[in-house]
Amino acid sequence: MRTRLIGLLIALMTLLAVPASADRLVVIELFTSQGCSSCPPADALLGELAARDDVLPLALHVDYWDYIGWKDAFASHENTERQRAYAAAAGSRTIYTPQMIVGGRDHVIGYKPMKLAMLIEKHGESTEPAKVTLTRRGPDLLVEIAPAGRVPAAQAGGPIQLVLFRASETVDIRRGENAGKTYTYHNIVEELRPIGTWDGKTRVELKVPNVGSSEIAVLVQAPDNGPILGAARVR
To answer: Are 135 and 142 in contact (CB under 8 A)?
Structure first.
């Protein structure tokens, strides 16, 4: 038990460290719900990760826990369908909360900071096939995608996705499994929508009008919820 606790502490310290530089921005999607009693540790960890510059942690609240008495105001059925699509891509019929997807590829079910730390390191050291650059110009967002590595044919032609998210919000939960508790949620995805596709080899420039004042990120992903090929954000 002592060895396990020491290992957990080392993993947490590794996760919360902010490196001076990184080869790529590692995207972490947390599927969570305010109605899930197992989710608060993962929600808190996501909040700590939000301070790092080498990861993009995103909270996608799902709606399948709403039936137990507390409707998650951040939840959407689109988030649930995205999680189901990841499960299908992995050959599974089952979805869980909390569940993290790292880089669109690796699944972490439950609160497992040691496994997450290793995956962040692995993905951060890997080659980023798509270099994504974002620039705000007034109310608009300019998106530039340039090839930076080899993209297998099976991973070409996937979506370019705009992500609008809220930095944080505190919620008093009055019913359900977490009744009487107050939690702060971070990087809450408000919208995730396709704005184009990328063929894996061509330089692309897009303008997204009127993006508003939300936190913004753009993901380039392989088809059918495959690996994330590149990502960027503007704070």
So the answer is: yes
Domain range enclosing 211: 2-15+24-234
Question: pTM of the predicted model, to two decimals?
Answer: 0.91
**Backbone dihedral region of 115: left (phi > 0), alpha (psi from -120 to 50 degrees) or beta?**
alpha
CA pair distance 116, 31, nearest whole angstrom:
14
Q: What is the CATH number of the domain that holds 230?
A: 3.40.30.10
Report pLDDT digits (tens) over 50-96.
999 999 999 999 999 999 899 999 999 999 999 999 999 999 999 99
* DSSP 3-state of 71: coil
Q: For the chain, how many structural domains are there in total? A: 1
